[in-house]
Structures are given as structure tokens and as C-alpha cells.
Amino acid sequence: MENPRAEKVAVVDEATGKQQAADAVIVTEYRGMKVGQLAGLRRQLRDQGGEYKVYKNTLARFAAQNAGVAELADLMVGPTALAFVEGDAAAVAKVLRDAARTNPLLIIKGGSMSGKALSAKDVEALADLPSREVLLARFAGALQAPLVKTAGLLQALPRNFAYGLKALIEQKEAA
């Protein structure tokens, strides 16, 4: 673009900033969805830390290239919307996957996470991950398990010694 209008430059700058600030970006096609359905999807995504935004494909492609994720530009064909994720990308991917299952008009095309391109299958795999809280709880449990086992083993030695000593004393008293 030789002399872009200020409005278009502002939109490209906004989209670039959102892509750079987001933990992940998921590209979807919403062809044929009604405004009410899109509003409901936006509400669900907002609850999970996501923002669902529609940009003109040409401007979104420029923004993707400016943000350093040129692979996203190839996905921007047809009515495209971007889901910007701040926080738990798995939760937002799960909302989009569930919405796509109930509404076949919504198609997940792919995305990017940490500057790397994701295919549609990668986004599906991301949606299958447990939430961040569950993963952290599992990690804490994995760290705690060996410590609990060691503590149990260390307690067993004096406890078994005391039982053996008590049994010996009772045996001597009986004799």
C-alpha cells in the first residue's frame, strides 16, 4: 500500500499490538453465523480471557506480518475472525472447539502461540489439554508424592522398632 488511509493504519497497528500482546491467537472462519451466535461466542471467550475480533483480511495479513507471524496470513481467506488469548490458551481453544461442535458454521483454521504457527489439529490438541489449574495441581502432586513416601518410610523404622520392642517385652513378661 503506497498511501494508506489513517484509519487503515490504525486498524493494522491495533491488530499488530493485540497479536504481539496475546499469549496465543486462534484464527476461525465464521461464514453464515448469525450476530447473536457471534455475540454469545464473544461472551464465552471473554469469560475465559479471550477476545474475538473481526478484521478485514488484508489488514489482518499486514498485522500478522508486522507481528512476526506471517504463517497466519495464509489462513486469512474468507470471513475470518481472530481470537486473542491472554492467559489460559487451552480454555479459549476448548470454548472454540465446543462452539464449533455445536455450530458447524464455525471452523477453526489454526493459530499461533509464542510466535509459532499452529495448525487446526494443534489447536484441537490444545483444547484437549486440562486447564492450567489442573496441570499445576498435578505438578504439585508429583512433587509432593516422593516427599510423602520418604516421610512414611522414615516413620516406619522407629514405629516397627517400637512394635518389636513391645512384643519382646510382652514375651519376657509372659515367660
Count of the separate structural domains: 2
CATH architecture of the largest domain, please? 2-Layer Sandwich
Note the main sheet.
5 strands, antiparallel
* Poorly predicted residue ranges: none
CATH topology of the largest domain: Alpha-Beta Plaits
The CATH superfamily of the largest domain turns out to be Ribosomal protein L10, N-terminal RNA-binding domain
Q: What is the total tally of β strands? A: 5
Q: Mean of the pLDDT scores?
A: 86
Our estimate of the beta-strand percent is: 15-25%
Q: Which CATH C-level class of the largest domain is it?
A: Alpha Beta
Share of helical residues: 55-70%
Question: How would you spell out the order of helices and strands?
Answer: HEHEHEHEEHH
Ordered list of secondary-structure elements with their pairings:
Layout: H1 6-21, E1 24-29, H2 35-47, E2 50-54, H3 57-66, E3 80-85, H4 89-102, E4 107-113, E5 116-119, H5 120-128, H6 132-174
Helix pairs in contact: 1-3, 4-5
Outline:
The chain has 175 residues and is an alpha+beta fold. Helices cover 60% and strands 16% of the residues. It has helices at 6-21, 35-47, 57-66, 89-102, 120-128, 132-174, and strands spanning 24-29, 50-54, 80-85, 107-113, 116-119.
